[in-house]
Amino acid sequence: MAEVHHESLHFSGRVQGVGFRYTTLQIAKEFEITGFVRNLPDGRVQLELEGTPAEVRAFVEAVEERMHGHIRKVERTAQRRPAQFRGFVIA
């Protein structure tokens, strides 16, 4: 199985209850990425992505631009691994 670029992001700030997941889902339709977005019990939002490095970078930039007033901090890790996702969903 071919490896893909994977990124795991955790957004902190006022990111729950502001349409963050829905907005992220809508933005995802404009990019060739797969993965999911979900709220975490600690108040952060988790975003897991797979795609080309350029698509993932552009997608994350679009999310950060659209939700900039709500994001205080972003924790981000990247790696190459076998593809695990199909489509993009709210988990």
Question: Overview of this structure, please?
Answer:
Helices cover 25% and strands 43% of the residues. The protein is an alpha+beta fold and 91 residues long. It has a single domain (3-90), classed as Alpha-Beta Plaits (2-Layer Sandwich). A hairpin with a 5-residue loop joins β2 and β3 (45-51). The protein starts with a strand and ends with a strand. The mean pLDDT is 97.
- Large-scale geometry: globular
Second CATH tier, the architecture: 2-Layer Sandwich
| Number of beta-strand segments | 5
| Arithmetic mean of pLDDT | 97
Rg measurement, Å? 12 Å
CATH fold category name: Alpha-Beta Plaits
Total helices: the number is: 2
- Residue runs with pLDDT of under 50 for 5 or more positions: none
Secondary-structure element series:
EHEEHEE
Q: Into which percentage range does the β-strand content fall?
A: 35-45%
CATH C-level category: Alpha Beta
> In what order do the strands lie side by side in the largest sheet?
4-1-3-2-5
Largest sheet: 5 strands, mixed
Indicate the structural class: alpha+beta
Instruction: Give the proportion of residues in helices.
Output: 25-40%
Distance between the termini: 25 Å
Number of domains: 1
